[in-house]
User: What shape does this take?
Amino acid sequence: MSGQGSEELIERASEVLVANYARAPLAIERGEGCRLFDREGRSYLDLMGGIATVALGHAHPRVLAALEAQAKRLWHVSNLFVSEPQVRAAERIVANSFADRVFFCNSGGEANEAALKLARRWHRERGDDRYEIVAFEGGFHGRTLFTVSATANPAYHEGFGPMVPGIRFAEFGDIESAASEVGPRTAAILVEPVQGEGGVRPAPPGFLRALRELADANGCLLIFDEVQVGIGRTGTLFAYEAHEVVPDVMTLAKALGNGIPIGAMCTSERFSKVLVPGTHGSTFGGNPLACACADAVLAELTQGGVLARSRPVGEWLGRELDEMARRLGPELVVDTRGVGQLRCSAVPGAGSEVVGRCRDDGVLVIQAGAHTVRLAPPLVITRDELAEGLAVLEAAIAG
Ligand code: PLP
Assistant: This one.
């Protein structure tokens, strides 16, 4: 059965998997650096990195070596014991961020779930009846009931109600709108420094700092969801660094394990104290295999020079997309947005058609909303590889 081609495998998938994803008709077999290969050996240039996740590229030697070495030693012990990879990964996050404490889990949704629960519990411990969460239109925070409740898109709520109570939505980028939603019951403000799924929308200058001031004046927590934009995606290890503002809680996932499932809720000593034994947990969270990979990813990003090399490439990518937009004109490209190596071209028609045409021509990109084509390549991508992909994208947009 393993010798079957893509078509047969896609057929089998359609018979046994829950059909909750709109999957492309593509069965990927292998990855190397910025290239993916299907079962027939066709090569695809990966400009989406498994949705902003494979930051170091496929089968990165350092991460692979860490995974293999750990796989021979220890896979799982639960959180009833200490294991070294978990400590090492946490130490790297603590050494390179505002955080003093890290709670490991398995996904971005879980990291945000932990952050929201922490915020509510922080106030309850102090005798404050604060439970409301102020989140933003266009945001995306996950698919657990709490995190999907904090995600404004009504399509994601349909049929799953009632949602978790106490969520309020403000306009992203509009501090007056945020201020009007924050009140005596607010436990936390939850925001993405750059909205990823919502269309690659960077927070306007000063917005995150204004949210910090608003949270301080109100006495609520400020949570940055860096699940998509953390771990170097925007050019700094953590996106908050570029805004000269420090959150109370930061959530990570996606690129933290370079594809191995892991999430993290990172906070200061002060707030972490409310999660005492028995309050919150995860069987797999902080799993030695996942943490060994996260440790290797963080080492490569902080000491391996990846960030320094990726920054100018991200800026160049932004300029190239702008120039492409100028060449194609406003009838074909409505807008280009983004930071670092998270970029997009907004098109007037269906983004899915552009994505499909790129795929047919051997380049993988993704949508971020109906009219947006998003690029989130491995951070190690070269200008030559990007130029090859951009030529295909331009032809695909031109139709
Ligand atoms: N938060 C943000 C900003 C995301 O982009 C995502 C996923 O796209 C999530 C949370 C949810 O992460 P996961 O799918 O790992 O649960």
